TrEMBL record, chain A:
Localization per Swiss-Prot or TrEMBL: Nucleus, Nucleolus
Lineage: superkingdom: Eukaryota
Organism: Erpetoichthys calabaricus (Rope fish)
Name of protein: Ribosome production factor 1
Stored SUPFAM superfamilies: Class II aaRS ABD-related
């Protein structure tokens, strides 16, 4: 037994020694690398002096990814990262010291760059005093709603054979949007449903598309001849999944908030959402539906608010919450084959710049 | 207004009824319509040049009126009520100072100036496009939904000169549907290129006994809405409802290149007569000018309404207008300077010449000394 232990010990020891050796090897190799670097730099310097006017000298092209050994490479990379982190924190401390030293005379803090700050200038942003856009919007498909000639009436349906989540989502949407009716889609073609809806004075048709028991798309079609928007739906939260939610929404008409729809396309979509809800909200109900556009994603939230005093408001989230992303806007009612598209999302052309947004 | 309209190289009609002129060199767009009188009924559905010199633009509106816009004066000069059948204008043309109009319901009318009589021809239902032949002004081609290509000679309006036959049944032995969305005559011949809503591009030759298309190709899977022949008539640029624009070779029927950058349906395309440029406008409210050879987007102008029709001048100097103006201004300045300088006569001139040479030499010496000094400071 003892002998075996000894043997084991014998086996164990070289391994430990080996690991230490490896570490030493790493440190040694690292040092060797550094020495090599320095040597290369020294070699290059005398030549650089002479070639000042005629040639530009290139720094030695040594990168961490050239090391073939994974452990050594990882070690060198960690070292590089630590070095960079140290440089960054030193710079920060230096700036902080300078700022304190200056005291009141210090320049104001620079505004941090965000993607919204750095957004590429979009020439289609609507100027509020633009005559031509006002003319266009005064005579377009939504003008009958904005001139108070028609009241919204919405038909909500799904793709064929919906599953539990989608059905519940449609029911909750119907409670949130006033004067909306949910109908079961019995495999009917949309092109046949649309003339029937027009005949019964519906103004909107919403089709919630389902994939693998989860709603993932939304087609919003303005009737009688209005534009059709196709959205991608994500992050759907039904009422029972909401934390700290209030009671179910009442029958009062909600207010509508549309945030950040600045471009011409954004304007059209914003108007589309606005004409889903009736005109005069019941402020007694204190309910508000928000469509917030940020970076081309539209976030829908439904809240009940209460003013505690003049400056503080309490918010209670009710109702479903979901995110939309516009995929296409088609002129005319739903006709994906022969319809003319006003805007189509082309991923490879439009998503190449991270700071360019379309809504 | 007159000056602005003279420099405009592209004329565009929009859905709101506004006629826009765009100066491509300066990237400026001007509206030439009165906003107060505009309604959706004045939506521009067809446009054409009033004459060969391109001094007048004829604008056809949905309610049946044809307005004449003078490029020289910069305003609308004439309003004519050319209402015939139902539907918007699908084609406008001018031949020997008479106006040819075609409406969607198929009523083709020739309006003579001053004369209330019109020659009326019924060319079939659901017409989507009517175009005039470039070589013979009295021939027009018509195409539409389930209305195959027909070429009419207006001197013999009883029957079409050429009536196309539908392609053979497809592999399921079903009749191939017909829906011509745009067509154009090839220059100096009777051949016609058409593009359909079933994503086909077809070439017909009336001089052959074959009434079926000579060449047929297809592009992508969406309806082709606009078509334009390139300046050398060997290829054709087509655009579809998704904003995909391609250049297709007519000799072999293959795709040459695609032009990128469109976000919405392309409503109108026109290639320049001699330069390798193509102008396009569509529902995404932008006018784009691409170079046909290297696919680059040369100009992109935002025009705030959805655009329906487009007319491109055949002037050569679309992109170089600004430079010419600047050069002329500089020349004018130089001339003034030379005129202001005093003239020098002979006797005085010798002395002045000596003096001049002396001054010149001193100047050169100074210059050399300066340069030497500069060199010293560098080293």
């Amino acid at each position: 037994m003892v002998a075996s232990d000894n043997e084991e010990m014998d086996f164990a020891e070289p391994q430990v020694k080996g690991k230490r050796k490896k570490k030493d090897n790493k440190a040694e190799s690292a040092k060797k690398h550094l020495k090599e670097k320095d040597a290369e730099m020294e070699k290059l310097q005398p030549t650089s002096n002479g070639d000042n006017n005629t040639e530009s000298c290139f720094p030695p092209t040594f990168s961490v990814s050239d090391i073939k050994n994974k452990q050594r490479r990882h070690f060198m990379f960690m070292k590089l990262k630590q070095q960079k982190k140290k440089e960054k924190s030193d710079l920060k401390k230096k700036r902080k010291r300078e700022r304190e030293a200056l005291g009141d005379k210090a320049p104001p803090k620079p505004i941090p760059k965000t993607i919204e700050n750095q957004r590429v200038y979009d020439e289609t942003v609507v100027d509020p005093e633009d005559e031509e856009v006002a003319l266009d919007e005064g005579t377009d498909e939504f003008s009958s709603y904005f001139n108070r000639l028609t009241n919204p009436k919405i038909l909500i349906t799904t793709s064929d054979r919906p599953r539990g989540r989608t059905v519940r989502f449609c029911e909750q949407l119907a409670t949130v949007i006033p004067d909306s009716h949910v109908y079961y889609r019995r495999g009917l073609a949309l092109k046949k449903i649309i003339p029937q809806c027009v005949a019964r004075d519906f103004t909107y048709l919403i089709v919630v598309n389902e994939d693998r028991k989860v709603p993932n798309g939304l087609v919003l079609c303005h009737l009688p001849n209005g534009p059709t928007a196709h959205f991608k739906v994500s992050n759907v939260r039904l009422r029972k999944e909401m934390k700290r939610r209030g009671k179910d929404p009442s029958e009062h008409l909600p207010e509508v908030i549309l945030n950040n729809f600045t471009t011409r396309l954004g304007h059209s979509i914003g108007r589309m959402f606005a004409s889903l809800f009736p005109h005069d909200p019941n402020f007694i109900g204190r309910q508000v539906a928000t469509f917030h556009n940020q970076r081309d994603y539209i976030f829908f939230r439904f809240h009940r608010y209460i003013f505690k005093n003049e400056k503080r408001v309490g918010l209670q989230e009710l109702g479903p919450r979901f995110t939309l992303k516009l995929r296409s806007l088609q002129k005319g009612t739903f006709d994906s084959k022969f319809g003319e598209y006003e805007w189509v999302h082309k991923r490879h052309e439009m998503d190449s710049c991270r700071r360019k947004f379309h809504l | 207004m007159a000056e602005k309209s003279r420099w405009c190289s592209v004329w565009i009609g929009s859905e709101t009824g506004i006629l826009k002129g765009v100066n491509v060199a300066k990237k400026q767009a001007f509206n030439f319509s009165d906003f107060s009188t505009l309604t959706r009924e004045q939506e521009v559905s067809a446009m054409c040049w009033g004459d060969d010199l391109e001094s007048e633009v004829l604008v056809g509106c949905v309610n049946g009126t044809v307005k004449t816009f003078s490029v020289e004066k910069g305003k609308f000069t004439e309003f004519r009520d050319c209402s015939g059948g139902e539907g918007p204008f699908r084609g406008l043309a001018v031949h020997n100072s008479s106006l040819i109009t075609c409406v969607e319901s198929g009523v083709l009318k020739v309006w003579k100036e001053g004369c209330p009589d019109t020659v009326e021809v019924n060319v079939g239902r659901d017409v989507y496009k009517m175009r005039q032949s470039t070589s013979e002004g009295h021939k027009v081609a018509i195409g539409g939904k389930e209305n195959d290509l027909k070429i009419w000679d207006l001197q013999r309006p009883e029957e079409p000169v050429f009536k196309a036959k539908n392609v053979a049944n497809d592999w399921l032995d079903l009749r191939v549907p017909v829906w011509i969305r745009d067509l154009q005559f090839l220059p100096e011949s009777d051949k016609v290129v058409t593009c359909t809503a079933y994503h086909q591009v077809r070439l017909y030759d009336p001089s052959l006994p074959q009434r079926r298309p000579v060449l047929e190709t297809s592009f992508e899977e969406y309806p082709l809405t606009a078509l334009s022949l390139t300046s050398d008539a060997n290829s054709v640029v087509v655009g579809n409802t998704q904003g995909q624009v391609a250049v297709i070779d007519l000799r072999q029927g293959r795709l040459l290149r695609c032009l990128k950058g469109f976000a919405g349906s392309v409503r109108a395309l026109q290639c320049h007569r001699s330069l390798p440029l193509v102008a396009s406008c569509g529902l995404d409210r932008f006018l784009r000018i691409h170079n046909l050879e290297d696919k680059h987007l040369l100009h992109k102008v935002y025009l705030k309404s959805r655009l329906n029709c487009l007319l491109l001048t055949s002037r050569e100097n679309i992109q170089e207008q600004e430079e010419k103006v600047q050069e002329s201004q500089e020349e004018v300045k130089d001339d003034d300077i030379w005129a202001a300088m005093p003239t020098v006569t002979d006797e005085v001139s010798t002395k002045r010449k000596i003096k001049k040479t002396e001054t010149l030499s001193t100047v050169t010496k100074d210059k050399s000394s300066l340069t030497k000094k500069k060199r010293k400071s560098v080293t």
